Amino acid sequence: MQGRFCALLAVSALALALGGCGVRGSLETPRANDNTAEAQSGQGKPEGAAPKGHKGFVLDGLLR
Q1: DSSP-derived 3-state class of residue 10
Q2: pLDDT band at 23 (very low <50, low <70, confident <90, very high)
Q3: Cα-Cα-Cα-Cα dihedral sign, residues 53, 59, 61, 62
Q4: Which residues of 37-59 are buried (b: 16+ CB within 10 A; e: fewer)?
Q5: Which end of the chain is more exposed for a tag (fewer CB within 10 A), N or C?
């Protein structure tokens, strides 16, 4: 029983160690951001737009 536990622990540790390796090779450099568009109100909505009404949800009693 203890042998199986040790084997399971070793396989789990190996899987976690190999899973954390990521992509092989050198790091990629960040690309320049060519997007020069600007949001009108900071949230992607046009200024003066009316806020959306609240839709009811089953868990509203717990959340509010």
Answers
A1: helix
A2: low
A3: negative
A4: eeeeeeeeeeeeeeeeeeeeeee
A5: N
Structure tokens at 58: 């089953």
- The structure's pTM equals 0.33
With vertex at residue 57, the alpha carbon angle to CA 55 and CA 62, rounded to the nearest 5 degrees, is 125
Token look-up 């568009």 returns 37
Q: Output 47 or 17, whichever has higher pLDDT.
A: 17
**Does residue 64 contact residue 56 with C-beta atoms inside 8 Å?**
no
Percentages of the chain per state (helix, strand, coil), in multiples of 5? 35, 0, 65
Is the pLDDT score of 9 beyond 90?
yes
- Evaluated on CA atoms 41, 45, 47, 52, the torsion sign reads negative
